[in-house]
Amino acid sequence: MRRLDKGAPLRAAIKAAGLDIPHLAARTKELDPTGRGLSPAYVGFIAGTGKSAREDCSERAAELIAQALDQEVTALFEPVFFTVVESTSTSRSAVEVSGKSARKATPLPEQLLDQRELSAYLRKSPSWIDAQIKAAKEAGRTWPGLHYVGRSRRFDPRAVLDGLREQRTQVSA
Could you tell me the CA-to-CA distances from 171 to 36, 60, 137, 165, 166 in Å, in that order? Predict the structure, then answer.
């Protein structure tokens, strides 16, 4: 979940409830069915305004904070969806596949990401990406969205996200 308006509604709700960060964290512990709640540091990251403030938090954290403040989750947070903005470029590149029947292959995206850019985009480590590629190779598959350009790897972010969604639905089924 992503906090609304850089956390302004959240901070206003905390102030209106007469709570501070430590007391809000204690309240989440009281309300949490597991009894764990949220740490004061995590609540501070979510509600804060400084360099350490976080725009995103877990769904569990958003629900506990909203419940502790007696607010609707949607009044304080919005769901996060991965979106890839369509290019406004008029030029599109397509790759021709040579063979018996020369057919058009799927057009490449406007920009392929390198592994560092993909890891920042997915908020995963480069070693996580390496492990995913290795697991796919061992299973006899190609990791979705992976392209080799010379000896370097490039990734189509749309295909990677589609592949991860498909993988997630297969695991949950």
Answer: 27, 21, 18, 10, 9
> CB of 24 within 8 A of CB of 43?
yes
Q: How far, in Å, CA of 19 to CA of 1, rounded?
A: 22
Q: How far is CA 89 from CA 78, 83, 92, 148, in A?
A: 30, 18, 8, 24
What CA–CA distances, in Å, run from 11 to 16, 122, 157? 9, 28, 35
Of 141, 147, 146, nearest to 170 by C-alpha is 141
Per-residue pLDDT of the chain (173 residues), as tens digits, is 899 988 999 999 999 999 999 999 999 999 999 999 999 999 999 999 988 888 889 999 999 999 999 999 999 998 877 555 555 555 544 444 444 444 455 555 567 888 888 888 888 898 999 998 898 889 898 888 888 888 888 888 888 888 888 877 877 65
Structure tokens at 68: 């502790």
